[in-house]
Amino acid sequence: MPTDQLVQKFRAVDTTAICDADKSIRVLDSAIRLRSAEPRIFGPAFTVRCRGDFLAVLRAVETAAPGDVLVVDGGGAEIALAGELFARGALVRNLGGIIVDGGYRDIAYVRGCALPVYSRFVTPMAGTTAQLGELQIPVTCGGVEVYPGDLILADEEGVIVVEPDRIDWLLDAAAAVKDAEAELVALLDTGSTLSDGLNLTEHTTALNRGEPSTLRFLS
After folding, report:
1. How does strand 117-122 pair with strand 33-34?
2. DSSP-H helix ranges across 28-166
3. Residue among 39, 59, 38, 35 nearest 47 (CA)
4. Judging by DSSP bridges, how do beta strands 97-104 and 69-73 pair with one another?
5. Mean pLDDT, range 117-138, rounded to an integer
6. pLDDT value at residue 46
7. Which of 45, 74, 113, 197 could share a disulfide with 36, CB 3.0–4.6 Å?
């Protein structure tokens, strides 16, 4: 579970700033969409792999620890692997969210639900309950690999996956990005241009010369 200090750090940034701080961040396919009222997720992955059968997801809801985020590799199939009852059950157990690379249903309830829920599809047809599936193994969700215990972060921009031992540094780096953006916004609000706050001329000149360069904020 993330510490209270890390939770506070994440509240001050967003997934875009984290991605700006590190271009190697694993980002789930944008087809994995928010379905619930609450977008923000920050918790360790509890992984599930199943195909056309949601028994493993039910097992995960009842097995995962408080704060865990269910990451379901459903193979991207358009079949519901969870719905209202699973969201309610996850809330009772204080889970951190449910992400399904597959279908979710009962959206009339889920769209107002306080549990963060993401899925690739919305569909009324549910899977079967005859296969055990697999829990807490490496899975693929939204086109990226997710390992048990990886940290899952999500907001209105999307879902990302971070190695636990890098999260403190990344959140600090993201905070620095947000601070620099705030300074540029303040400049723009006074009538300055983007070029007044970025090394745009220097950067493009260097690139035209074939020299390495990085676009950056001017402080």
Report:
1. antiparallel
2. 55-63, 84-92, 107-110
3. 59
4. parallel
5. 98
6. 98
7. 113
Residue 154 has phi, psi (to 5 degrees) of: -150, 150
Please say whether the beta carbons of 150 and 166 come within 8 A: no
- 3-class DSSP assignment, residue 218: coil
Residue 95's pLDDT is 98
> How far apart, in whole angstroms, are the C-alpha atoms of residue 10 and residue 190?
29
The sign of the torsion formed by the CA atoms of 145, 74, 47, 117 equals positive
Which two structure tokens, joined as six digits, stand for 52?
């056309």
The answer to whether 82 and 72 are in contact (CB under 8 A) is yes
Output the six-digit token pair for 58: 């039910």
| Res 1: pLDDT | 77
Count of residues in the chain: 219
| Tokens encoding 15 | 């997934």
- Helix (H) or strand (E) holding 7, with range, is helix 4-11
